[in-house]
Amino acid sequence: MKAAGREVTIVMVEDDEGHARLIEKNVRRAGVNNEIIPFTNGNAALDYILGPDRTGDNIQNRYILILLDLNLPDMSGIDILEKVKSNPHAKRLPVVILTTTDDEREIQRCYDLGANVYITKPVDYDSFANAIRQLGLFFSVMQIP
């Protein structure tokens, strides 16, 4: 996956080792060979995405796709989604929610906050591969001002 000719980095925020391996396997099976940087907690992921100062200044001209679990040890994925989508530099980054929760209200809340795709675990491989491919298309046409 490339955006404007640049390589896209996949940031995976998932504290369950087994799920993380499964997600990575599915990403690879979908034919996506981009670098995957795994995080097991929200703070470390936010440091990487928005920088330790959380300004998001570090993200300009970087292309990141976020795979986000909602249930993390140190904060909820909703908090991360809110912080990313409310940051002027990061708000256009695509976020795929991967979680065991299929609560309608939570799903709606994620979409309201700006999530691009919501996938319930255990991940149905075909819908996951399809979502990743669609985001690949999304990246290829995405223009970052």
TrEMBL record:
One of its GO terms (biological process) is phosphorelay signal transduction system. The keyword Signal does not apply. Transmembrane segments: none annotated. PROSITE patterns: RESPONSE_REGULATORY. Pfam families: Response_reg. Coiled coil: none annotated. PANTHER family: RESPONSE REGULATOR RCP1, RESPONSE REGULATOR RCP1-RELATED. This is DNA-binding response OmpR family regulator. It comes from Rhizobium rhizoryzae.
